[in-house]
Amino acid sequence: MDWILHLILLLGSPYLTVGFVNNDEVQTLTRYILRGPSRNSGLEWLEPLVDDFGHRMLCRKSLEDAIDFTVERLRQDGFDNVHTEEAPNMPNWERGEDTVTLLEPRNLKLNILTIGGVDPAKVTAEAVVLEDYDLINTTNVNGKIVVFNQKWTGYYEDIKYRRAAKEIKALGAVGLLAKSLGPFSIGSPHTGGGSDEHLPAASLSLEEAELLGRLARRNKTLKISIDIRSKNLPPCTSRNIIFDIKGSEKPEEVVLISAHIDSWDLGQGALDDGGGMAAVWQAMKVIRELGQTDKRFLPKRTIRAIFWTAEEHGFAGAKHYYEQHKNGKEKFYFVSETDQGAFKPTTTKSILRFMGNTTQRAKMQEIVQSLKRNDIPISVQEGDKQGDVQSWADDGVPSVQYVADKGADFYFYFHHTTGDYLNIFEDGDIDYTAAIMGTLAHVLSNQDKW
Amino acid sequence: MDWILHLILLLGSPYLTVGFVNNDEVQTLTRYILRGPSRNSGLEWLEPLVDDFGHRMLCRKSLEDAIDFTVERLRQDGFDNVHTEEAPNMPNWERGEDTVTLLEPRNLKLNILTIGGVDPAKVTAEAVVLEDYDLINTTNVNGKIVVFNQKWTGYYEDIKYRRAAKEIKALGAVGLLAKSLGPFSIGSPHTGGGSDEHLPAASLSLEEAELLGRLARRNKTLKISIDIRSKNLPPCTSRNIIFDIKGSEKPEEVVLISAHIDSWDLGQGALDDGGGMAAVWQAMKVIRELGQTDKRFLPKRTIRAIFWTAEEHGFAGAKHYYEQHKNGKEKFYFVSETDQGAFKPTTTKSILRFMGNTTQRAKMQEIVQSLKRNDIPISVQEGDKQGDVQSWADDGVPSVQYVADKGADFYFYFHHTTGDYLNIFEDGDIDYTAAIMGTLAHVLSNQDKW
């Protein structure tokens, strides 16, 4: 149990700080998680959440029950300031028994998932298959169902296909079938948020988007019928979950680590974003436990964790929280999220997607160097996709989103599919993510200034 | 186009034979496929079969239509002896809207596929989760639904779980839920053949078998309801497809390469076994084309290709053919099948699963050496699973089943799932399989004796 020996040595010696990162502090925290008493605790914490409540769709009982269950556990853990804050007017969309059927050249019920937010609609029309987005500008799509059969180039590059409703509707299209956003499939379409336009729209499995592509290349006329029963319902109120480790010197300066609790209505939302929640919880639990053993470990600034609601619906929960707090007396010093797979980083292709200025970036580099010294390979990369913490990032608060190497590709095997289950995580995945989030939170809560 | 140069050189020079394998002959054939005019032709041949007819379930119109389409194409190709032979009394099973629902500890419609051959049944009972088959002998399963949540160790090792109905019924079990037979899943259960017993039985997705396993380990009582609507119907008659390249010296001695045309009622049966068919067709086409260019390339024995029906139902089509022909005047000299993924071999973990005596095995080794010299890594391995050609293998006819390295594991990502689509094949997969099957057929059709 080398972490115990290390802790004893640490308690007997002053922290040795080079730059603003104290490597002993990072070592204590990461060893406590990866090889010490906290090992596997995040995964164990996650199990009853996803197994007992299942997926947690916004405006559904399973989400609100899961929120209650989580708050109760956080109170038992003894965190500071455990509470929920209401997020009113949340989008309420319910999936129905939707069908999309290829009628010609042969009858085949297609393997689809309706895109979130679409209202009931029926349409039968000829389909045109486009292998690239820009072809909408040179192809007659008027009166047609547009089928996108793009090559996977990455989620953020390809999301325009799923969100094309408004643009293709303006060109006269009567329906949208977008190839699912992922690099690999076993008959597994992906859902996700779409446009507000009431154009019938669904994601096709990779296999069947490619089938339609091949049929079109052989000059077959494709006739497709779309029958959407899904619908929007009156808005609901949901809740964000907040819990703190109160800062000893600057309690009103907040270092934020976060993940989201809501999910789509498929699988059990373990990957997206139960694993993120578990890593955030584990990081918080470890900082609290180490602080109880050694008061010097307690943070100077407040470390706050938030489990957002309504992430899957345009970050609606986080945006509401931001609006409520942006003019408050608390100052957000740093914000972060983990929502692209709480995976173990195995190469320095694992990144902290960072927004901030040059000085701040240099500090991130120091943190990353310290993580590397503790066998956590990772690098800093500029990027502007910060998910739920985007509002603060846009405000100039330094921000990070953790993306493991597996988060760039493997994550999208399962994202928004029926395959989003706890077994995606391998031993250590959540531990490593917790070690990264905990290190960020702890180091930044204690530095003098940005 | 080095194959043309090679062909010219070959035509001008006598075959150089070391042992019984003529390496020039193998090189001509493999180059013609892998880098010559036949490149990609198998994959192109397969496309309309799977895209225009879809899956091809026994006793369904799509199978018989696909048989007619295939026969017509073979006739146009000019093969000898193109015909079908009826296989009567074939099992006729139709999947219904089957549901399996977890009632306690929470309500969840489980992600299942009924096991083939099961008749309508309804049962609600407590479930017991077993992580290993042998636990049926030490666990009280009387009145219970048995859920198997085994670790994947391989298809042939684990198939006992799917076929456990008879045995667990004898112990008083009232239902069977078997974890799907595969190493990896994206919410993708696998179907397959089961037992004849009328015990309600279905395959669970990996994810949900593991979910039930975790709930049981946390001492939750599991209550499950099974409602099977699938049913057996009166038997039907289907057809095997036979086509030859007639032997020039020993036409009544048959060298057989084969694959099966029927599939389960999911996906499009491209992997299982459209790819096998395409490779067999491509091998036959190439041998015929090379023989037209150079008469010396024509086989001395008859090379026969068969596309079996009813493979998915206990090899019923092949067994019928065997019974009809075992006492005929034709002598089966060698039999083979490709039905475990028509993939490119990338390592010598790719095998010819071989049954035969020591002398025959030595000859297989020579063929394999020649394939290796032509950049096709493969090895010979003893094994007794020869699929549709098992009857001949059991009779002592030397036999081979081709299993690429990807056939051991990756194949079972898709096997009997909704993900069995043409896109599984990468560039070259079917070409390489055709090169192997073609080499086996051609070399063995021309050797003096075993």
Helix fraction of chain A by DSSP (H/I, runs of at least 4): 25-40%
CATH topology of the largest domain in chain A: Aminopeptidase
Kindly report the oligomeric state of this protein: homodimer
Strand content of chain A: 25-35%
Shape, per Cα inertia axes of chain A: elongated
Number of helices of chain A: 13
Class from secondary-structure proportions of chain A:
alpha/beta
The N- to C-terminal Cα distance of chain A equals 36 Å
The largest β sheet of chain A comes out as: 8 strands, mixed
Family (chains A, B): Belongs to the peptidase M28 family.
GO molecular function (chains A, B): carboxypeptidase activity; metal ion binding; metallodipeptidase activity
Pfam family, one (chains A, B): Peptidase_M28
Domain Peptidase M28 (chains A, B): 240-435
Based on the model shown, name its key terms:
homodimer; 450 residues; alpha/beta; Aminopeptidase; Glucose Oxidase, domain 1; 8-stranded mixed beta sheet; 18 strands; 25% strand; Carboxypeptidase Q (chains A, B); carboxypeptidase activity (chains A, B)
Descriptive report:
The first copy, chain A, is an alpha/beta fold and 450 residues long. Chain A has 13 helices and 18 strands. Chain A folds into 2 domains: 23-92 and 234-446, Aminopeptidase (3-Layer(aba) Sandwich); 95-232, Glucose Oxidase, domain 1 (3-Layer(bba) Sandwich), CATH 3.50.30. Chain A has helices spanning 2-11, 23-34, 41-53, 61-77, 155-162, 165-170, 206-217, 270-293, 316-325, 358-373, 390-394, 411-414, 429-446; strands at residues 17-18, 21-22, 80-94, 99-104, 108-109, 112-114, 121-130, 145-148, 175-179, 201-204, 223-228, 231-245, 250-260, 301-308, 331-337, 351-355, 379-382, 399-403. In chain A, the strands form 3 sheets. Chain A has an 8-stranded mixed beta sheet, with helices on both faces. In chain A, a hairpin with a 3-residue loop joins strand 4 (99-104) and strand 5. In chain A, helix 1 packs antiparallel against helix 2 (23-34) and helix 3 packs across helix 8 (270-293). The mean pLDDT of chain A is 95. Chain A binds chain B through residues 47-48, 51-54, 105-106, 108, 111, 184-188, 205-208, 210-211, 214-215, 218, 266-268, 413-414, 417-423, and chain B through 47-48, 51-54, 105-106, 108, 111, 184-188, 205-208, 210-211, 214-215, 218, 266-268, 413-414, 417-423.
